[in-house]
Amino acid sequence: MFLRMLSFIMYFQMNLFIYQLIFFILIYIQSTHNYPNGAPSGACPTMVPGHGVNSQQCSTKYIIQSDKSQYYTNDTILSKYH
Fold first, then answer.
1. Residue 43, exposed/middle/buried by CB under 10 A (0-12, 13-18, 19+)?
2. What are the counts of helices (DSSP H) followed by strands (DSSP E) for the chain?
């Protein structure tokens, strides 16, 4: 009798865990939309993604400096991070 009750409790707890796991996965899954041929052509000239949200103004915590303003294939680039 005790073993039967113990097995029922373990079965119930495992099922409860699985249901909770599925529930949380479904909550955190968000639908996404993409374009089969890449970003819309209007996004490239402006370099603005077009998500409909304005950018936030903030100060940067880091500065990245490079020794070149143009890069070519097989170039060596010296970068400094402050």
1. middle
2. 2, 2
Residue 67 has what DSSP assignment?
S
Cα–Cα distance, 54 to 63 (Å, whole number): 23
- Given a contact cutoff of 8 angstroms between Cβ atoms, the answer to whether 65 and 79 are in contact is yes
Q: What is the pLDDT of residues 4-18, one digit of tens each?
A: 766 767 777 777 888
Q: Which of 52, 78, 76, 50 is nearest to 65 (CA)?
A: 78
Q: What is the pLDDT of residues 50-61, one digit of tens each?
A: 677 777 788 888
Q: What is the pTM of this model?
A: 0.29
Residue 31 confidence (pLDDT): 63
Query: What's the start-to-end Cα distance of the chain, in Å?
Result: 69
